[in-house]
Write a structure and sequence with these properties.
Order of helices and strands: HHHHHHHHH
Shape: elongated
Radius of gyration: 23 Å
Number of domains: 1
Number of helices: 9
Low-confidence stretches: none
Largest sheet: none
Strand content: under 5%
Helix content: over 70%
Mean pLDDT: 80
Length: about 200
């Protein structure tokens, strides 16, 4: 039964009991039977708070690096960039192996990985004085984040990707690859969105 239908049924149960249509025991048995369906809201809250926590951790790491930036030599900066990527990938592998069925864990690992990719790119770019083109940075970051989206099935990474591509377009960097490829970039998340909609409809 669909979640909206279960929600409607739960709203009707008190009236049905009061009118004598069903007994309170029957109402309790219905709640027990459909119990897992109404836990989805709690899972959503856990996912939101988990992702917020991961974002704060990622931003904290970036702020620590920024504070000690001048004291770090090139070797140290590269070591930190590589270490961040390895840590993010290890966390993603751990979630994939042991918490694959936990949405909050997958979202958190995916967001952390995406943040570490961006931070590592920025660190390398600043260390070796590479291009200061914000549009090129955004495009490269979003393209490198696409595998994360599909590996961990992350809705937040998908939304971040669309926002990032939108920022790249707004930055006026479209001539880098040509206007005719804009829709291809936006459409890169279409298979995941379609899969998500089909999954929602089947619940």
């Amino acid at each position: 039964m669909k979640k909206n239908t279960v929600k409607w049924l739960y709203e009707q149960l008190p009236d049905l009991v009061n009118k004598g249509v069903i007994s309170s025991d029957a109402a309790d048995r219905i709640r027990d039977y459909y119990g897992p369906e109404i836990q989805e809201e709690k899972k959503n809250y856990m996912t939101i708070f988990g992702v917020i926590g991961i974002i704060l951790v990622g931003l904290g790491i970036i702020l620590i690096m920024a504070h000690n930036w001048e004291q770090l030599n090139r070797f140290s900066r590269m070591g930190i960039a590589v270490a961040m990527l390895i840590a993010a990938q290890i966390s993603a592998v751990a979630v994939w192996c042991f918490k694959r069925d936990k949405r909050s864990w997958k979202e958190g690992a995916a967001v952390f990985w995406m943040l570490m990719v961006g931070a590592s790119m920025a660190l390398v770019s600043q260390t070796y004085h590479l291009s200061d083109d914000t549009g090129a940075f955004l495009l490269a970051w979003m393209l490198l984040s696409l595998p994360i989206l599909y590996l961990l099935q992350s809705t937040i990474v998908a939304a971040s990707y669309l926002i990032g591509i939108g920022g790249w377009v707004a930055n006026g960097s479209v001539p880098i690859i040509g206007k005719h490829l804009i829709w291809l970039l936006f459409g890169a998340v279409f298979p995941y969105c379609r899969q998500l909609l089909l999954a929602e409809q089947s619940v």
